[in-house]
């Protein structure tokens, strides 16, 4: 009939169109539902894949959740740590930090995903992480990945490692990083040994015991009462465990005039309690030996994924309503972080934890490393996490001429770890004047090319302490041990004594130390001799930095004048 028209979209065509649209929507949904999230760094040359991991291999993984209000938290952390700020020492509680930074939407999205997958999990009190303990078979399905066993022929270490992982888009938008599946352990560390004469041909190190430290830094005027309000702690990784029997023998040999109970570790947190580790014994014997009477905790992690273990530790601090006032940590990495499987996202996540811990009023003190400038023929490296702006890094010194009556200098039987970070950049505001002073005092001809180090980044260490010849009881025998891992607990113990005096005066602990340190350079003895152009083995390297007048990336501002440091700390709180 006149006016009739052929349909432009007959039923069959419309059906096909609907089918195509439906398929497209399914494809889009599938793409939105699952997307690549993270891949492992290439295996270092010393590691090889040995084969697939057994399906029932147990894995501890941590999902770090994105947080909110981190700018506000950072402003708070800076304010409560700055003696010139009206909010100095007005620390936040763990619960207040959780309320400020936890994102309920992130918690809900990840919880719903894991529940639907039938994977058991625990949400941390911080609301900032979710812990999973599952088999590789379960995680392979959850993360759409495979697990292999990798082995290091040189160090004889092994690890279970995932391939690339996938997360649903609705989950990925709420996740900072996933820990415990891509990381590698730190290489085993041997105690630095004398391999070459000292700069001044003085020979073997002085035998350092707590009384030598007390005399060198003028420690006096504080008697710890054992009040639980002032506690200190060591954090141990890589399966390092302390020995209580060795600690008791150490006290019997070197610490006199104290109550017998003062040689006991107050509390253990984390994995196994006791063993026989050189590092753990060094840490506990000197943090307790220099500050006898201060209750001491041992936080120990037996895992073999360094960044994963760090995340577990920092989240545990933030989940504790009344943590120790200060931690000493003798672990870190001077090199490319991908060599131990730590991603940029993981480093940022841990650094945000350190920021939160500073807001909580807990001090974190790290050894700065034993590899000097860590020059590898191409680049110099500062140690991390020691280079976080939210922790304090401690370098190492020795006595000139190995004579306790003489001044100290930078160690030279290993290198005092120091330099400028490529990770933490630009340098924090509190440090810029000190770094500028270093560049004025260090001849330009002595500096590495700017392309060979983290020019413009955070400088470490901040301070220093003795680090050679420490007498440590190991398996019932005394051994001479060195390293910034001796310096860190020594410095931490002195801070604990200052916190003790502040507590007895009704004041708050010092918390994050960095602003105080950079505002009070005069409470340190400047170290102006030595360099960090020295390897872990004590051999010379061609690039590095010098100890000069003022702050430098070898010994920081130098060693503590205890009484002056204590007086300045009291003055900062009008004590």
Report on the architecture of this protein.
The structure is a single chain. With 575 residues, this protein is α/β, with parallel strands linked by helices. Helices cover 31% and strands 18% of the residues. It has 15 helices and 23 strands. It has helices at 11-33, 70-80, 94-101, 104-117, 136-143, 169-172, 210-217, 244-254, 278-290, 306-318, 344-360, 432-441, 484-504, 514-519, 562-572, and strands at residues 35-38, 47-52, 58-65, 121-123, 129-135, 147-152, 158-162, 165-167, 175-179, 231-236, 267-270, 295-300, 326-329, 363-367, 392-399, 408-410, 419-420, 459-460, 463-466, 470-474, 477-481, 524-525, 559-560. Helix 13 packs across helix 15.
Number of strands: 23
* Average pLDDT for all residues: 92
pLDDT < 50 stretches = 1-13, 19-32, 193-197
**Helix share bin:** 25-40%
Morphology: globular
Radius of gyration: 26 Å
